[in-house]
Specification:
alpha+beta, Fructose-1,6-Bisphosphatase, Chain A, domain 1, five-stranded mixed β-sheet
């Protein structure tokens, strides 16, 4: 039964939101992590420490992978592993924007089986369990059905439009952006945008929860190599990601250069 696992993640995410709210707009201490990893704040660390203490106390036999914890290869030994981004969109959080999220996922056998993305300042909680559907605040989600066209609303960075990624140049579509990868995937799952693309190496904690939410909303999620993503890898990075309605993801995938070229 996945209901207890999902309930555990939801309760933990809501508590994470309370911590973030306490720091939001109060100029929390922050610093750059170096190696182009971006900023981290005392709020990220406090959320991470709470989540690890709460989740690992509730499930002491599970592994742990988080952006704000040193990686440990021992996480691959247990049958199940938590994959956590304490605050996805730290820059937005520090800038006083409401578009940051807490992303919590549980992996089993390389697949995500339960997921929560919580945006505390927007009072939005996206949830999914394997085979159980995807929801926003309890309301079922479903991806859209738009084809690839200049009107297709696709969430991606400007760098994804670089010609190096595409066989014949980037196809025409309406580019949009949100700072949190997890939230981007949820917006696709809700049908507010047609697809999401990231073509750079992508940390698992940014997309693990969102991947299940899109899939349970009826969408497709593929890596840059057009393979199904696997999680809790020794190197916790994926080779980019495409997410959206299955026909649109197929169209986008066919327009890419083959991986490695």
């Amino acid at each position: 039964m996945l209901a207890p696992e999902l309930s555990l993640l939801v309760d933990a995410a809501l508590e994470a939101g309370e911590i973030a709210r306490r720091h939001f707009g109060n100029g929390p201490e922050s610093w750059d992590k170096g190696d182009s990893q971006g900023p981290v704040s005392i709020a990220d660390i406090e959320v991470n420490d709470m989540l690890r203490a709460r989740l690992c106390a509730a499930r002491p036999g599970y592994g742990w992978l988080s952006e704000e914890s040193p990686d440990d290869a021992a996480r691959q030994t247990p049958a199940r592993t938590f994959i956590i981004d304490p605050i996805d969109g730290t820059r937005a959080f520090l800038a006083g924007e409401h578009s940051f999220a807490h992303s919590l996922a549980l992996a089993e056998g390389g697949e995500i089986i339960a997921a929560v993305v919580h945006l505390p300042m927007r009072q939005e909680t996206y949830t999914a369990s394997r085979g159980g559907g995807a929801f926003l605040n309890g309301v079922p989600l479903s991806v859209g059905a738009a084809p690839l066209s200049p009107k297709a609303r696709i969430l991606t960075s400007r760098a994804s439009l670089n010609a190096e990624h595409w066989a014949h140049g980037a196809p025409a579509f309406a580019r949009h952006f949100r700072p949190s990868l997890a939230w981007r995937m949820c917006l696709v799952a809700a049908g507010h945008f047609d697809a999401m693309i990231t073509l750079r190496p992508t940390w698992e904690w940014d997309v693990a929860a969102g991947a299940l939410i899109v899939a349970e909303a009826g969408g497709a999620v593929l890596t840059r190599s057009l393979a199904l993503p696997r999680f809790n890898n020794p190197d916790p990075r994926l080779n980019g990601l495409l997410a959206g309605p299955k026909p649109l993801v197929a169209e986008l995938g066919s327009a890419l250069k083959p991986a490695g070229q």
